Amino acid sequence: MERLLEGAFAVVTGASKGIGKGIAKTFLNHGATVIITGRTEKDLQNTVKELSNFGAISYIVADISKAADIKNMVDTAIERHGKIDILCSNAGIFPMSLIENMSEEEWDYINTVNVKGMFLAVKECIPYMKKQGGGNIVITSSITGPVTGYTGWSHYGATKAAQLGFMRSAAIELARYGIRINAVQPGNIETEGLLSMGEEYYNTMKKSIPLGFLGKPEDIGNAMVFLASDLAKFITGQTIVVDGGQILPESSDAMEVPIEK
Prior knowledge:
Blueprint: E1 9-12, H1 18-29, E2 33-38, H2 41-51, E3 57-61, H3 67-81, E4 86-89, H4 104-132, E5 135-140, H5 154-175, E6 179-186, H6 192-195, H7 199-207, H8 217-228, E7 239-242
Parallel strand pairs: 1-2, 1-4, 2-3, 4-5, 5-6, 6-7
Helix pairs in contact: 1-8, 3-4, 4-5
């Protein structure tokens, strides 16, 4: 297998489990040195132990909702490796709350984590990427918000749409410095979070996917590897939907229409 990120140094936020862990694993498989971040040190230690056979990996405890933690994350990464070639802004939360029951605090917190945290991580990396002559930023967005909607996730969907709005203007600003920024929009991916929502939810989501199965975190990682590699050197400000065709059916009936042989 060609190692597309050989010699690159990457920071992956929110990577102690789920999609972020899958991204970190695929980055390692493609030759990158990786720092993962998260809020819980024990989870980070377990992930580093699990993935250390795939390549050079370490961790930094960081709460992406806190500006001081983000600054320390970037400063520590530079101290350890002298550069940041790839920032993967993956950290995010997805609590469910109906609009009529949603508090102002809930709205503010999810925006702080999913949008403000992304913005601050990108901002902190820019000076170093400019100095080194370029870099790559990849964002984990979602199909929820930019493309689809789901009851209880109006606040989550708003943050994921906001990420893409930020990305498009950032791509124009940063292009002159050789910095590219792109995003992946996952559909339903088999993570701890999705599995925790129960078997009924899992089976419902599975039925909604034309390919007939849920994606794995590594499927998102593979798309991230492409966007962060030289194969995508002429791509910036764009998104890749990775969802097994989930957004394509016009209705649930479209999945049941018999095909003549």
